[in-house]
Design goal:
CATH class: Alpha Beta
Structural class: alpha/beta
Largest sheet: 8 strands, mixed
Shape: globular
Distance between the termini: 32 Å
Strand content: 15-25%
CATH topology: Rossmann fold
CATH superfamily: Peptidase S8/S53 domain
Mean pLDDT: 92
Strand order of the largest sheet: 3-2-4-1-5-6-7-8
Order of helices and strands: HHEEEHEHEHEEEEEHHHH
Low-confidence stretches: none
Number of domains: 1
C-alpha cells in the first residue's frame, strides 16, 4: 500500500510502532461543519452532535463543501485511499455552523461545553472567527487547565480579519507547508496568515481526504491542524495506556516545540512557529517518562 506523502514526511508508520497504538482511548472533538456518511470512517468510533448539542443520526449530512468530513477523515479514516493518522481514536463531531456553512460563536461555545462533558482530550478547530468573547477565551483556557489540547488552524489568507485563534493563547495554532517544507502560499497565492501566535507547522497541501463524492486533495491549515490533532492523539494514547496521561500532558507543548524541525527563519518565526512537527522525535523525547 502506498502511503500518503505526509505519512512519509512525518514517518507515521514509525510513530505507530513507538506509540504502540493508533489513538485508542483518546477522545477528539472535531468542531466543524458536520459529517457525512462515507466508507472508511468507523461508525462505532464516531458520535455526531448538532448545533444545540443533541446527538444526531449518522445519516445527518455535512454542508456542501464537506469540510467537517474531510477534517475527520484526515484524523481517523481507515480507508487505504485516504488513510487517517489516528483511526482508533473516538471522534465527537460537533456541528458549529449555520445552514449556510458559516461558523457561529454561540455554536462554538456550546461545542466546548460538549467536549468537556465528553472528556475530550483534543479539540480540533479547523476554522476561524471574526468575533470572540470572554466565555470562549475561558473555555479554551479551561481546556488547557484540565490538560486537554485545543488545536486550531492559522488561516489560509493573509488578509483574513480574524480574532480566533489569534487571541486565544492557550490554543495550539497550526500553519501549513507543502511537500518541499515551504510555507503554504494560501488561497490566493499571497501567503497564509502570519503572526507570533503561530505555534507549529504541519503538512497542508494535497492531503487525501474522504467525501461522499470520493477522495479529494484537502488544502490549507484546516488539514494541517487535523494532522497535529491526530499526532497528539497517538502520543496521548500511549501515555494514557501507561497511566501517564497527566505527566505527559503537562510537558507536551514544550516538547512539541523543542522537537520541531526548523524550516523557516531561525528559531520561532511568524510563518511556521517553532517549525515542522516531528512526531517521531516528539515521541522519543517522552520515552524516558514512558519507560
Amino acid at each position: 500500500m502506498t502511503m500518503p506523502w505526509h505519512f512519509e514526511m512525518l514517518h507515521i508508520q514509525e510513530l505507530w510502532q513507538l506509540a504502540k497504538n493508533k489513538g485508542g482511548g483518546i477522545n477528539i472533538a472535531v468542531l466543524d461543519t458536520g459529517l457525512s456518511a462515507v466508507q472508511g470512517l468507523r461508525s462505532q468510533n464516531i458520535k455526531k452532535f448538532n448545533q444545540s448539542g443533541r446527538l444526531t443520526s449518522q445519516n445527518d449530512s455535512d454542508t456542501t463543501n464537506f469540510h467537517g468530513t474531510m477534517c475527520t477523515s484526515v484524523i481517523a479514516s481507515t480507508s487505504n485511499r485516504a488513510l487517517g493518522i489516528a483511526p482508533n481514536a473516538n471522534i465527537f463531531n460537533i456541528k458549529v455552523c449555520d445552514n449556510n456553512g458559516v461558523i457561529k460563536l454561540n455554536f462554538v461555545k456550546k461545542a466546548f461545553e460538549i467536549a468537556e462533558t465528553k472528556d475530550c482530550h483534543i479539540i480540533n478547530c479547523s476554522f476561524y472567527l471574526s468575533d470572540i468573547d470572554e466565555e470562549l477565551k475561558q473555555a479554551v483556557q479551561g481546556a488547557h487547565s484540565r490538560n486537554a489540547f485545543v488545536v486550531a488552524s492559522a488561516g489560509n489568507s493573509r488578509n483574513l480579519k480574524t480574532v480566533f485563534p489569534e487571541r486565544t493563547p492557550f490554543a495550539i495554532t497550526v500553519a501549513a507547508c507543502d511537500e518541499n517544507k515551504q510555507p503554504y502560499t494560501g488561497e490566493s497565492g499571497e501567503g497564509a496568515k502570519l503572526g507570533d501566535w503561530i505555534d507549529i507547522t504541519a503538512p497542508g497541501t494535497s492531503i487525501p481526504a474522504l467525501t461522499p463524492n470520493g477522495v479529494v486533495d484537502f488544502e490549507g491549515t484546516s488539514a494541517s491542524a487535523a494532522i497535529v490533532s491526530a499526532v497528539l492523539a497517538l502520543v496521548l494514547s500511549r501515555a494514557k495506556k501507561q497511566n501517564k496521561y497527566q505527566e505527559i500532558a503537562a510537558v507536551l507543548l514544550q516538547k512539541l516545540a523543542l522537537t520541531a524541525e526548523d524550516i523557516g527563519a531561525e528559531a520561532q518565526d511568524n510563518a511556521t512557529g517553532a517549525g515542522l512537527i516531528n512526531p517521531v522525535e516528539l515521541m522519543r523525547s517522552l520515552q524516558g517518562m514512558l519507560a
